[in-house]
Amino acid sequence: MLAFVPPFIVAIPARYGSTRLPAKPLRELGGVPMVVRVAQRALQAGAAQVVVAVDDRRVADALAGQAGIEICMTRADHASGSDRLAECAAHYGWADDAIVVNLQGDEPFAPAAGIREVARALAEDDAPMATLATPILDAHELFDPNVVKLVRTVSGRALYFSRAPLPWARDAFAASREQLPAEVPFLRHIGIYAYRAGFLQRYTTLQRTPLEQAESLEQLRVLEHGHAIAVRLTPEPFPPGIDTEADVARAEQWLAGQG
Fold first, then answer.
1. Are 99 and 6 in contact (CB under 8 A)?
2. 131 close to 114: Cβ distance less than 8 angstroms
3. Residue 54 and residue 148: Cα distance in Å, rounded?
4. Is the dihedral of CA 139, 137, 217, 157 positive or negative?
């Protein structure tokens, strides 16, 4: 029996400019613009509304005519995707308790089950925000600063996010850092979020915080200001996002293998 999934909105921030991959939303994968593939994933997940928050008419034009996908033109000067989505929330007048899933515009292969799971995580918790994680099984991944780690409470709420190895298995790592001790819950953060629409508006008014700036992790602002983040394990793997030319080539190879 399938678990109940509450009604949810998927909002996709799609900024045209990108230092490492210019015009990223328009890069084609298998002949389809990346932003279109991301929006199609949201539709497959069963979102009640799919909105792409764009800052450039060229991205809007690429989405024109796509059934079930709405386009929200936003300011070009937003500091983050969350700020862009807050503008969307104000534009549409979403109810404060509406569940809004922030699906990154560079996640063209995000599994539908994962999108639904982060919405369910928020619905089943009174935290104002939710996200996903997956177990880390490889020591290289744990010690990679580009991989964001997290620890959570026994009730499934985030305690901390870090680029450093977390938690530090003192005795095991004193002996060797080549293998991970099986009994320690090492988790990698997956960058998909669900917010209650009212909190999304409030979040963008919070002052940046010391740990957020030190780690360069925006979600730490939420914890430092005393708000909770519910964390669930993803039911399906999230393939890596697209951020470089090498990622585009890898994605094309993956698509070709799907045949």
1. yes
2. no
3. 27
4. negative
